[in-house]
Amino acid sequence: MSLTVVGSVAFDAVETPSAKRDRMLGGAATHFALAASFFDHVNVVGVVGDDFSAEDEAVLTAHKIDTTDIEHVAGGKTFFWSGRYHDNMNSRDTLDTQLNVFETFEPKLSEASKNAETLFLANIVPAIQLSVLEQCEQATFTAVDSMDLWINIAKDDLLKVIAKVDCIILNDEEIEMLTGEGTIVSAARALLEMGPSIVVAKQGKYGAGVITKEGSFWVPAFPLHEVSDPTGAGDSFAGGFVGYIAAHPERPITLEVLRRAMAYGTAVASFNVEEFGTERVARLTGPEIIERVKELAAITQFDGDQPITLRR
Amino acid sequence: MSLTVVGSVAFDAVETPSAKRDRMLGGAATHFALAASFFDHVNVVGVVGDDFSAEDEAVLTAHKIDTTDIEHVAGGKTFFWSGRYHDNMNSRDTLDTQLNVFETFEPKLSEASKNAETLFLANIVPAIQLSVLEQCEQATFTAVDSMDLWINIAKDDLLKVIAKVDCIILNDEEIEMLTGEGTIVSAARALLEMGPSIVVAKQGKYGAGVITKEGSFWVPAFPLHEVSDPTGAGDSFAGGFVGYIAAHPERPITLEVLRRAMAYGTAVASFNVEEFGTERVARLTGPEIIERVKELAAITQFDGDQPITLRR
């Protein structure tokens, strides 16, 4: 089986209250692919410039990620993003965005990428997501990420994408913004009427929830003593979540599979933020992920059936 | 057994995007006491003015809450607070605060209140919390709430309170502010060195976590389709949490008891926000709480031991 991700491959400059990096491999497709590669064969569809070195590519290929569909634009420069995190690490300012070759990106999918059973459309202009969806009719599970920018300036196209996918993965505030609803439950229910059968609400440092017509499941972020760099946490989460689903191909997807997919996404994301950029996930191992999922279960489980006598 | 709470009894005016109330019974001690009364006999220590009617008092006494130590100041007016919630209901503006009789409140504890096994110091000036603590030397479990205001203007007194209590219950951002630490885990660990053996981090609409030297436990807020009025949610949570601990008097408190206490606090708080003020909790029943705790378990549990083969 295989999983195709379409999205940004980038260089990031990140500043936190305690440290800074001027140039690291990043981008939504990069973080997603590294996370998902623990679970399934991953094809990355993206675009880079001359500044993307063999060493950068090796970060992906070392994890058996297929980089055939990463287009190299001669004379071009790779997408560059620069940001600064505030004290609580849950909010950030973008200091610089240079789209470069990403500005005119037209995803070109090989037959292998088109025929993947699972497709993840990382955050990118919705019209491109739509064109990729049309090329990947074989996929039995499709998921999409987006952002406030597209809700504001390309909502019609985004709604067309949403109508066609199985799953939407968004920040909780963006889900509320997209639907105009005041709680995440009412917003998710509105989205479930618009196409997807699965809605995942990312809640930043607080965790995430998944909502379907059958029920919901909520998991906290894994509590860490120190967070070095939150960049890519959401994409790592999505990579673990979608990767887990890709590796469990029985359809329809049960709520049991979704629960564990949420746990695996949470575990991988927690490693991502422990160090800068892709540093930690690049040397992560399967047993470490499995151990963290067990720890996550241990800190969230309680006995809801313990007898109690209340006073009224 | 019994539980004493010292704090504000108030009237609230609340405006949300969809509705408004000009005057409702409120205050931290009120919300806490109603929630805790499902679990233990509760004594409320507070102060009110002439405007506090027999009908207001009946909201408490109908739940077998002991109001002997609510002082009535002749010619005085009860503490009044007015606030407006923003669209996402997680932030609010205070429109008006009239301390009235609460400004010169000197808690007078009857022997029954002094001898309670459990003591909760709701959010109030730390010097008063300290004087109450000194009067309640019998208590085998003491917990305190506070707020950013006291961290800013009465930090020394607050630290003296913290040094003496078993448990501190605070918003996560206030815990980070109080300790100067950047993550809730490092901040909680710092607090555990300052006196308490239990730190509870309230995370607003996202849930809460409890951290001890033995481990931690995290629970999401119960997902609701509609939130009518978040006022008092934190105090209702504390009431359910502390009440559950009061009703399970084995000491030291195990992490198992803390987990369930967190679940019960979460359940009661979720009812509190379903309607305005004390409306919903005032007619809440034990079986409804127990049912919601079961539902909370159902939407947070997953099998962390399910075998999986990862690709590396």
Short descriptors:
UDP-N-acetylmuramoyl-L-alanine:D-glutamate ligase; alpha/beta; globular; homodimer; 12 helices; 312 residues; 4-stranded mixed beta sheet; 9-stranded mixed beta sheet
Q: How do the helices and strands line up, and which of them pair or pack?
A:
The structure is a homodimer of 312-residue chains.
Chain A: E1 2-6, E2 10-15, E3 20-26, H1 28-36, E4 41-48, H2 54-61, E5 70-72, E6 79-85, E7 92-98, H3 111-114, E8 118-121, H4 126-135, E9 141-145, H5 148-153, H6 155-164, E10 167-171, H7 172-179, H8 184-192, E11 198-202, E12 208-211, E13 216-219, H9 233-246, H10 255-272, H11 279-282, H12 286-298
Parallel strand pairs in A: 1-4, 1-8, 2-6, 4-5, 8-9, 9-10, 10-11
Antiparallel strand pairs in A: 2-3, 6-7, 11-12, 12-13
Shape-level CATH architecture of chain A:
3-Layer(aba) Sandwich
Please describe the biggest sheet of chain A, giving its number of strands, its sense, and whether it closes into a barrel: 9 strands, mixed
- Number of DSSP strand runs of chain A: 13
Biggest sheet of chain A: strands side by side, in what order?
A: 5-4-1-8-9-10-11-12-13
Question: What's the total helix number of chain A?
Answer: 12
Termini separation of chain A (Å)? 56 Å
Biggest interface, chains and residues, is: A-B, 62 and 62 residues
The count of domains of chain A is: 1
- State Rg of chain A: 19 Å
In percent, how helical is the residue content of chain A? 25-40%
Structural class of chain A: alpha/beta
In one word, what is the shape of chain A?
Answer: globular
| SSE succession of chain A | EEEHEHEEEHEHEHHEHHEEEHHHH
How much strand content do the residues of chain A show? Answer: 15-25%
- In terms of per-residue confidence, which ranges of chain A show pLDDT below 50 for 5 or more consecutive residues? none
The first-level CATH class name of chain A? Alpha Beta
**Overall pLDDT score of chain A:** 97
Oligomer: homodimer
